[in-house]
Amino acid sequence: xxxxxxxxxxxxxxxxxxxxxxxxxxxxxxxxxxxxxxxxxxxxxxxxxxxxxxxxxxxxxxxxxxxxxxxxxxxxxxxxxxxxxxxxxxxxxxxxxxxxxxxxxxxxxxxxxxxxxxxxxxxxxxxxxxxxxxxxxxxxxxxxxxxxxxxxxxxxxxxxxxxxxxxxxxxxxxxxxx
Length: 178
Prior knowledge:
By secondary structure, this protein is of the alpha/beta class. 37% of the residues lie in helices and 21% in strands. Strand 4, helix 5 and strand 5 (135-144) form a beta-alpha-beta unit. Helix 5 packs parallel to helix 6 (148-159).
């Protein structure tokens, strides 16, 4: 089984602000194409701030003070169409890997990661899944980072995790699975 996971395609990362991810809009059609090809059971994740700001998160939000939106704020809305067959997983952490996502991506199956930001939430989620023994494919042109340099560096790091983690373009992925 192959499960597409779309990480944090939310207004907070699309719109102008402290967390805006350049190239956000460029990856939307690529993710949509993958979704059409992989199937209807996509998982969308949402980063939603924990208002408690426990531990080091307090210092983090002092740095990113404009991002202290309440959980119900529109900033956390997903900007893509979420089909009725999709699952949405919320987490107040960079990594979206946890019991809920693990149940949706059973051992032996492949998790195809897309979304933002490659150098933060995508990377953290990939590392958690790899540690849990999942096969992870990061689709390079369906992810975006805070800069082109950060994108290249993060993808190079993820490639070091092969064969647990594979980095492919969308064309390579679709050709492999044709």
